[in-house]
Amino acid sequence: MLRLLALLLLGVQATSPRTPDAPPRPSVAPPRPSTASPQSPGSLPQSVYPRGSRLPLGFYSLGYAGVRPESALAAGFDLAGPYYSGPTARNLAVQAEVSRAGFQLVQQLYMPYVNFEVNARPRSRWTESLRSRVEADVRAQVEALLADSALDQAVAWWTVSPEELDWRRPDEMEYLTLVTETIRRIETAHGHSPRPIGMYEPNGRTADAMAQTGARTDLIVRGAYVQFARKPRAWVRWAVGQMVEASARLPNHPAPVVVLQMSSDPAERSQWSRDTISAWIRHDVVAALVAGAKGILVWSAAPRPALQNTYQLWADAYLDAARLLTGTERIGDLFIDAERLSSCEATVRSGPDHVEFAIRGRVQVPSMGVACLRRGGRTWVVAVNSATAPVEARIGGLPEGLSAVPAWPGTPEFRFGSGALLVQFPPYGVGAWEVR
Question: What is the pLDDT of residue 46?
């Protein structure tokens, strides 16, 4: 059956970022949101959110040269993919290998003949003929997957290509609507609860834009590539905040899934160090979750030409960060199903109280981000300093008369009393405590 799926499509898809230059135009009406229960795991064991309660942690293109799947699995990663260039024999073999190892898959729908790039020659025109071809193609790919029991059980999410579809162009939104509705219709007709569907959104997308595309999907999958954007690391929290805001506006509440970068060496050779890159990644991962992300993908496990000198440092840093989230207490899963305490807040006592950068004007992000999480009568505090300087912070609004116990190795120096934590955070410092 894998061979049948591979024969359905041939070709190579372009996946480079693009910046549409057309003026804003009205969007077509969004489809009816999926009625699938987010808590119905179907046949997927220990399913990742939103079908289950595991925090999604994934690598693009896992299983090629680079990060070893067994190392990623041991560290707590649970998703593999998407894989570009469609269901080639090599991609399918890698998918089969990583799914047997225990990974769930992100499966990309592949239509290499559809090209909405602004400067494409020719650019696809949304005709009735193209619509019919796309619908038939989606049907064929979904039915082929459903007919392969191993692949069917392994796939957790669908993702749409081409990526970065522009909400200002009606033809692109009609395409996205057709693909997502066809997937849901075919899976439902075969007695399946439709799997969540996402589409990669580029680094610059705001809440306004993602509220348009997200009305058609179950996941908002957006890049937060700090090096690519040339922003301070606090930008990760701003980017995730845009995703969370878009989701909150929509009745279907698509889950925010952030894509973090592993594709190029740092610009300055002085930054080619384990300590520097580890601090960056711990910050980015924790900052994304504190800001409201419900999943993290890393682009990409496959070695890339621009990442020749520090690949292993990045890979090790992401594996170490995953271990923080998936250790004995599985603190990462708290960001999926625990109650967030609204009374909890961080106040800066010394050091910078915000990070400022330019994006559509000047943006200020508080230096400190904090999440206080309660589940089963137990309370945890997870905090991050996004400033490049040390910060002393007071984290208040916690239960009084208790004590705080560090939940992660390397948690910063702290004192606890009167319902508050007093913490000395280093630059990009992170910490987690159980209050009991």
Answer: 59
Phi-psi region of 290 (alpha: psi -120 to 50; beta: other; left: phi over 0): alpha
Q: Is residue 52 part of a domain?
A: yes
Q: What pLDDT band is residue 361 in, cutting at 50, 70 and 90?
A: confident
Same-domain status, 249 and 121: yes
- Distance of alpha carbon 296 from alpha carbon 279, whole angstroms: 17
- 162: preceding bond cis by omega (within 30 degrees): yes
Cβ(27)–Cβ(292) under 8 Å? no
Of all helices (H) and strands (E), which one includes residue 186? Answer: helix 170-189
Residue ending a domain, choose from 321, 337, 353: 337
Q: Are 271 and 391 within one domain? A: no
Query: How far apart (Å, rounded) are the C-alpha atoms in residues 416 and 394?
Result: 10
Residue finishing a domain among 337, 354, 384: 337
**Are the C-beta atoms of residues 279 and 234 closer than 8 Å to each other?**
no
Q: Report the alpha-carbon distance of residue 311 to residue 217 in Å, rounded.
A: 33
Q: How far is the C-alpha of 395 from the C-alpha of 375, rounded, in Å? A: 19
**Per-residue pLDDT tens over the stretch 145-167:** 999 999 999 999 999 999 999 99
Range of the structural domain that residue 323 is part of: 2-12+34-337
The rounded distance, in Å, linking the Cα atoms of 330 and 335 is 10
Contact 402, 256 (CB under 8 A): no
Q: DSSP readout, 132-176? A: HHHHHHHHHHHHHHHH-HHHHHHEEEEE-SS-S--TT-HHHHHHH
Q: Are residues 237 and 354 in the same domain?
A: no
Q: Are strands 362-366 and 79-80 parallel, antiparallel or unpaired?
A: unpaired
| Tens of pLDDT, residues 285-335 | 999 999 999 999 999 999 999 999 999 999 999 999 999 999 989 999 999
Pairing of strands 420-425, 391-396: antiparallel
Count of domains for the chain: 2
Task: Answer whether 255's CB lies under 8 Å from 291's CB.
Answer: no
